[in-house]
Amino acid sequence: MWPDLSALLLTAQLALVTTAILMVLGTPLAWWLAQSRGAWRPVVETLVAMPLVLPPTVLGFYLLLLLGPAGVPGRLWLEVTGTSLTFSFTGLVIASCVYSLPFVVQPLQNAFRSVPKPVLEAAHSLGASPRDAFFSVISPMAVRGYLTAAVMGFAHTLGEFGVVLMVGGNIPGKTRVVSIAIYDHVETLQYSEAHVLSLILLLFAFVALFTLYWVNRVHYDD
What we know:
mainly alpha, globular, 79% helix, MetI-like fold
């Protein structure tokens, strides 16, 4: 088997799991941010956006402390499962969810904000509960936001380096993702292998973003 195939498969698995979790957890958070007028909203918005400006190594360092045996979450996980969150796939998922959070929440938040208030008022006047209105009216109108969030979250997770290296290390078949494999090849002057992996990520990123922009353009033209 091609040595880097395991890194590709692990990266794809990490991106899929991370995106799925963020779509589930990010939807109610984005809805609250879009609707709330409370004093805590700017604080939460700032925390969500922090991974956009923090150096990945800084974020990875503090996640390493939290998820390690000395941190409360890491210690509790170790006591319950007998395994460590650091240098594990589960730890990678948690770190990736934190790092890619704004790439999922912000598109959803913008999509929810774009839903006209008269539409919501009409749904409520017809007797729809908040839950029914969300799933039958708001979600269908925010479908482009969901698509953008899923594509951006998945693509961003594929390219993670600093955070996953700090939390997961470089364990082949367990935590060695594509970005780390590329770095290893460059360090050992194996440029042809680095080119192949880099080209795979480059092509995927182009196709994913092109498809996203094309779908959005078709929607606007209609």
